[in-house]
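note to self: dont lose this again. the chain is below, predicted strucutre after it. 344 aa total, dont forget to put it in the shared folder this time
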Amino acid sequence: MLAPTPPLIGAARPADAVLVDKYGRQVSYLRLSITDRCDFRCHYCMAEEMEFLPRAQVLTLEECLRLASVFVDLGVSKLRVTGGEPLVRRNAIWLLERLARLPGLRELVLTTNGSQLARYAPALRAAGVRRINISLDTLRAERFRQITRVGDLSRVLAGIAAARAAGFERLKINAVLLRGVNDDEISDLVHFAVAQEIDIAFIEQMPFGELGHSRRPSFLSSDEALALLQADFVLVPSAETTGGPARYWRIPGQTTRVGFIAPHSHNFCAACNRVRVTARGELFPCLGSNDAVHLLPLLRAHPADDALVRAAIAQSMGFKARGHDFGQRLDAPQLVRFMSITGG
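---
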């Protein structure tokens, strides 16, 4: 049974409760996947016929809350809830309400494909989510269907409208750069973001999971995308950050920020401040590594004692990699898990 909502608590965590890796980088950002399931089948993210995890192998919502609480107690101040598609998880709002009340957490954000936003936007805002990232790779309905295999663009656009109406502090579109697929829409996507007064980030394709073909022909770098945009927009570099890997540019006179997440061409590892936990409780200190700590067995073996979970998280800092090299993996990815399993 789901527990009642806890009260807001103002207690501060101990000053020395922080996660620091062997390179001196402090981890303050957790990306927590609450499901590997999704109502889309984006061809760069997962196989067309996916085998999803059995329920017993997935973190319960209570376990998600428990893990997040331990991370926050260890110094994490930003939490992003991801999937798969997090809003297909039953009672996701219940979890978000409780995550928002964790003492010491300063920012709760969500990444979604937008398909459920028209339904859930007001509840997400009331739960305490302050920012939302929405995946949107194209503004053309038929192309959207081809990329997602099953998605309906109109539902996502309605979700963006509902999120704007709900009054979130910041909304952002995330668009994966795909040569020969959506590279002719890069300016259109920015024009859309400007019209909606929201941010946009372009993401280089990442080599997760075996798709049966090389990703190299469809790879488009952030530098190429920036050059295409500079033909239509004046873009001014900005030192702004949202705590993640994006580098931002400003369009003079507009509120929209244009970001680029470039794990291939502009490696951002030197300032990495984040770790990921998958829906099956695997802690990945580095996105580009297969090394993981399995937290789910510890959670279930010690339901009333977080000491071993806490120790395992702290020890994982010892093998957080200095960096990754995605550029060498476009033809044959060494990361065997799909992005839907890793967490978006």
